[in-house]
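Entry for the shared binder. Reason: the reviewer on the internal report wants the predicted structure included alongside the sequence.
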Amino acid sequence: MPWRLLRHAQSSPHRCRPLVNVLVWHVHGSWTTAFVQGPHRYLLPTLPERGPWGGGRPAAWDWPASAVEVSPEELADADVDVVVLQRPEEIELAERWLGRRPGRDLPAVFLEHNAPRGGPAASSRHPVADRDDLLFVHVTHFNDLMWDTGSTPTTVVEHGIVDPGLRYTGELAAAAVCVNEPVRRGRVTGTDLLPRFAAAVPLDVFGMGTDGLGAHLHCADVRTVGDLPQDRMHDEMARRRVYLHPLRWTSLGLSLLEAMHLGMPVVALATTEAHEAVPPGTGLCSTDVDRLVRELRALVAEPERARALGEAGRAYVLGRYGLDRFLTGWDAVLDRALEKHHRRGARQPVAAGPRE
């Protein structure tokens, strides 16, 4: 196998022939949707019950045929070139199912989606710190700053989005919010702030585990739409006048980037990496909740300004979080992991044979 991942000169960066067999679990649907648009072959562990360790292909997203479901039994004989790990438990699973150790016996990358729960404290020491056989990838520079990975070599590949197209109509005088499990996650997702925002404009909340949210908050103006297939969710979000991103402590919500791709004006808490996604002139990003409330109310009342702000935000994210930039970054990561493993193998001492 060539160690440089060469492309066909006449092909689009994400429409090339498969070059590498990548083992990757379906953990985060939106991120994986972008990742599997690349030129490679993506092997997705699949269990009969599906679940977190064998989810396979999802029903809610449109993935290319190069994303292939494989059972643990099939993986034992599969031609896997590199493993993309996203949870520490996958290291043991990959070894058991492949009969080879990620990092030791085949190239491996560890991708961390989340910011450390404890912030920049003792609990930010990552479970795969000090692994010289892995390449560690962060999805934001904020995460790279906050996680302690010791001597494990690290890099950052910022998010990329499959462009859903400019769909914004803003016909409904309400704000869209997209968050999973807001009741369970509470302050992390800014759930406690929703009644303050709902006092300014009605909120329509999309995502998993949102049933009963309005009753939980005792707020009739927090309405739940629920978990919709991605394409339909994008259509419905784009009908709302503005997008609200109230999350306090997440990596960088892909729903925020998707809303900006749709052409929606956004109002966001300036926490973690959000300020990078919403620079001045593309929306309002602030830690002043009263200011955010005022802007939310103003955007709902001013449809033309809302549309202009959304168009500016879309232009920005198409460049900063575009799919081609994301896939090019990941090709560089896979190339580096392959070369790293090749060099590591070349350094291993060779046992002397019997003397004649």
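Summary line for the report: The CA atoms of residues 282 and 316 lie 7 Å apart.
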